[in-house]
Design brief:
The complex is a heterodimer.
Chain A: H1 13-21, H2 25-46, H3 51-68, H4 79-100, H5 121-134, H6 138-149, H7 154-161, H8 165-183
Chain B: H1 3-15, H2 22-48, H3 62-69, H4 72-92, H5 96-105, H6 111-114, H7 117-123
Classes of the chains: A mainly alpha, B mainly alpha.
Amino acid sequence: MQMPFDAQDMDTDEALLLAYGQGDARAARVLTLRLTPRVLSYATRLLGGDRAEAEDVAQEAMVRLWRIAPDWRIGEAQVTTWLYRVVTNLCTDRLRRRRGMGLDGIDEPADTAPGAEARLQHAARADALQQALDGLPMRQREAVILRHLEGHANPQIAEIMEISIEAVESLTARGKRALAAGLAGRRAELGFQDD
Amino acid sequence: MTDTELEALFAAGREATADPSAALLARVMDDAMAQIEGRAVPAAAAVAAPLAPARRGLLRGAFRGAVAALGGWPSMAGLASAAIAGLWIGYAGPAGLDTVTGALWSDGYEVSDLVPSIDAFLTEG
């Protein structure tokens, strides 16, 4: 649906959040349309593609944003950084609960679904990547997703994950090595040729 | 797998975004509005009755506020019973009631007995 042009579309997340904190419903609409897709994508990636659970997380994270709006302290953190941290924590809790319930699919080996070859190659690659990501330890997965899929810089990732920049670098490096090793056997299937 | 190949996978992964459904967006927006309403009601109550500080966050909605002010749902149940009983007594005028009112009123209580100052008010016209 094409939304009408709105001057608020140009405002920063923080300006909109402050306006919403003052009761501005239009600011809430812009923030909803701007942030929900990002939050949902990130949650979906962290939760191994579980769309229903990711929607729950996205809604919960946005509720927490609405709740904190009146008390938001200007300049203390970026809204997206704060939100990604909330999503990270919510997903971590859910993944731990899954593990506790014995329903953990996180560490299962990558599944080569029949029919993957027939799909568009980039879709097959995205699927393979998601499966490989699901096999990573939680913190490595968070760091790799934030860096390489969500496109955050290391200092911001450090803030989201509440660790040092060096720890972020270490996690992403180890994560990438593990991904490369995990996907090595699927190179041909994913359309990569030996030189 | 080389870095270049891995980067090709990341590029594919970045394309695979999860678009939120209209239902999810509506739920998120509903939550936002509910929070605004929840904040607006105590603020309005504080303006209307500055001597009674609003209990922020506890009252959500004017009706809920009124119920809480009367002592919550148990009081509302008592209030409803009394209202219905009064309506029934007024409509049916049960005979036994005369005994009660006779005992209470027949000894000659006037309004002025209950509100002495009304006498002066009435005589001066």
